[in-house]
Amino acid sequence: MTYEKRHDQRRPEETRVIEAKAGVIPNADGSAYFKIGNTVAYAAVYGPRDLHPKFMQDPSKGVLRCNYNMMPFSGMGDRVRPGANRRSKEISMVTEKAILPVIDLSDYPNAVVDVFIELPQTDAGSRCAGICAASIALADAGLSMKDLVSAVSVGKVDKMIVVDLDYEEEAYDDGPVADVPIAYISATDEISLLQMDGEITKEELMKGIEMGKKACLKINEIQKKALKDRFNNPNGDHNEQ
């Protein structure tokens, strides 16, 4: 059966409903909540602070260190094993690489900025939600940034190119599926993360990326609004699209 209409009635270029809030963890130097559909990410920033052991220090600038973790019962599929695993280490690494181009750590030699990303609930797009939350949290911590990093998945379900695949679309088995997480820096029109799982043609990929960049511009506005509301109305409600 051909996938001609998204099961949740979204248009191909449409994301799930998004909510965002900054300053949600009182004891952190910066924090954020980001929800897209049924995927929820919390990010907490601690630092800059001295990095130990000393051999890991960089005398020219600070170090960004991200830690991504899905809680055991967060997933739509099987129970996630607690603790570090290959997937969480890989996502932690790509999150660092996605965010580093926008953050200036030159004023913090020999220091580290730690970002902890926790996902209590997931329905696909977890690494993208984590990047969006981490970006808000770093700005909330007062670190110098040239822009916020926005992220979303694009891809193909059967013959349809779509934005923000959910779990049901990722698990579609009546045709080919491709999932392509991207992170986008709108100020410089740069893509800081591009991964792919599945098969997709070059033409389909380019179309998906353009759709994803437009979606990221909308996400960027939601992220900025979360930060503005943090200081204009500290006890305000989540921003929702």
List the helices and strands and how they pair.
Elements: E1 18-22, E2 30-36, E3 39-50, E4 63-70, H1 86-99, E5 111-121, H2 126-140, E6 150-157, E7 160-163, H3 167-170, E8 177-185, E9 190-194, E10 197-198, H4 202-232, E11 239-240
Parallel strand pairs: 4-5
Antiparallel strand pairs: 1-2, 1-11, 2-3, 3-5, 6-7, 6-8, 8-9, 8-10
Fold and architecture overview:
With 241 residues, this protein is of the alpha+beta class. The chain has one domain (18-230): Ribosomal Protein S5, domain 2, CATH 3.30.230.70. Helices cover 27% and strands 30% of the residues. The chain contains four helices and eleven strands; from the N terminus they run ββββαβαββαβββαβ. A six-stranded mixed sheet has the order 4-5-3-2-1-11. Strands 6, 7, 8, 9 and 10 form a five-stranded antiparallel sheet that branches. Strand 6 and strand 7 form a beta hairpin. Helix 1 crosses helix 2 (126-140) and helix 2 packs parallel to helix 4. The longest helix is centred in the C-terminal third of the chain and has 31 residues, at 202-232. The protein is globular. The two termini are 32 Å apart. The mean pLDDT is 91.
